[in-house]
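Limitations
The structure tokens in this dataset are predictions for the assembled complex, not deposited experimental models. Users should treat interface geometry with appropriate caution, especially where small molecules or nucleic acid strands are included. An illustrative entry is reproduced here so readers can see what is and is not provided.
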Amino acid sequence: MLVEFFFCLRKHGLKTSITELLDLLTALEHDMAACDVEQFYHLAKLTLVKDESQYDRFDRAFAEYFSGVEQVDLAQKIPADWLQRSIQRHLSDEEKAQLQGHGGLKELLEAFTERLAEQQKRHAGGNKWIGTGGSSAFGAYGFHPEGIRIGQTGSNQRRAVKVWDQREYRDLDSEQLINHRTIQMALRSLRRFARSGAELELDLAQTITATSAKAGLLDLQWQRERHNAIKVLILFDVGGSMDDYIYECQQLFAAARNEFKHLEFYYFHNCLYEQVWRHNSRRFSEKIPLTEVINRYSKDYKLIFVGDATMGPYEITHPGGSVEHWNEEPGIATMQRVLNHFSKSVWLNPQPFERWHWHHSIGLVQEIMGGRMYPLSIDGLNRAIRSML
Amino acid sequence: MNFSSTDQYIVSPQLQLAVNAAVVLQKPLLLKGEPGTGKTRLAEELAASLQAPLLRWQIKSTSKAQQGLYEYDAVSRLRDSQLGSDKVHDISNYIKPGKLWQAFTQDQRPVLLIDEIDKADIEFPNDLLHELDQMEFHVYETGEQIKAQQRPIVIITSNNEKELPDAFLRRCFFHYIQFPDADTLAQIVQVHFPNIKQRLLDKALTAFFNLRDVANLKKKPSTSELLDWLKLLLVENIAPHQLEGSAASLPLLGALLKNEQDTQLVEKLAFLSRRRD
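Predicted assembly:
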């Protein structure tokens, strides 16, 4: 009974369990969806999917199993294995110059649709068909000045020292991927309770004293409840090499958001300079001077940097080292100013610990932080938090 | 029984199916959706249509699972013992049944609404796993076992502030209330304002959906805001043609946008589009 369907769902990454399948079967037994595919669809969705962010996956799995639903998304029509990363072709400057633009975007799209209709097989490394690693205008992981990128995650040519174009950085969305309870449990140890709010709790010691004072006649004493008084300021590195760790950062961010009442966060790129920003979409229009951040938050805020600290060493040590603007002061001076203000701080690095010695800049930052850089793993997080208490 | 739209409340067929499945299969129904899409109203309407008692358990950040079962008022027992009251010998005088207990012991199958479960501590749903699954619990103070005479219809709402644990989700049916489309919304409005003029309604709905389409709003206006706004429009006797033009010039905009930044954003956009003209 529906076992194939069940496995089809799991194949699409839905975490449906057997209990839920049994629920669906019971519902069917009760004639909840009598011979009607649409009713069955809604019933299956109701019983098997427990999160609206999974609805899309469910729809695709359902369509695949019942194969009656048309898919309209062009990019999804292209089989994924065509676009899988293959040998990257390195082009010389000469070759790049040879590749001229294909006119405007409209022509490009038209040509793409045409090409898609012509092409029937997987293709890699050439210069006309759609595929991976080539120099055709269509495909992924390749080079073409006006190419259409399909199914590529992250930017491929990011070793460039200067960020030439103002790429859009993705916001860390707190509404996504909150399910990592382990992070939340780790963050829970970062607690310092203080009493605040209304007097709701019985103060036993005071009650006994007061009652004794009244010769045994009960005199109740109340006190305020304890709340977590920890304040946290998080500075996130976004963009560039951090693309690889968006998932980890989202989880950390979401968990922290749940856990701390006083949580403030800002973004920076690669190294901390004299300005930070709050929204990635408005990062070039709404910069906030770092001095304002320092003035606004008192020194009892726990400062957490999240970044891979992977950059050119001069981005830290030299004035003008920033890849995006001219910084009067070297990054190291800015870092030190912040560290002097906040009494407790750590740096969480999503790069695996084994790779740290590959990058000179990680060693530099580690030195600036006084050794308080920890890998962004549960263990690292626990150690980081212990060092801040 | 079959739950369907009433003259007060419009349900989509999917939601109808979800409610009926939850009622028949005796499983808790977890409802999510934008604020103001009628999650809480659903429980009220369901109780009304079944003529069943509604027990509402409003969850706050300080709520504990135990409070839903029962509370032992040790302090008042201590006080009574001091005053020499006779009540003190029977501990059950000091056990106060919570909402779940009340729901379990109703004569008629009740509707139990656990409202905004995501407000509570992350362990809260886990503490209720057994109680919602088996519909029974133990009272340690008196040694009683409280078991549901009939399984209550449990409606749980969440605003997505916290992720709920998997084990809890597995025990529930889940339905995400989508924001209604224009037709459904028109139906909903008709239910609430039967005498509204069609032209005013059309204009108002267009303006409303345009406003919802503005990107980066902190809080999009939802059904309940629309209804409040329409009520004001009727009271103030606003003519349909006044609803034309940019979003910022809408009369009584404050009923739709509850956030100062949102209002500023809309004004800024209107200003920009005026300059372009």
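Some entries come with short summary sentences. For this one: The longest helix of chain B spans residues 260-276.
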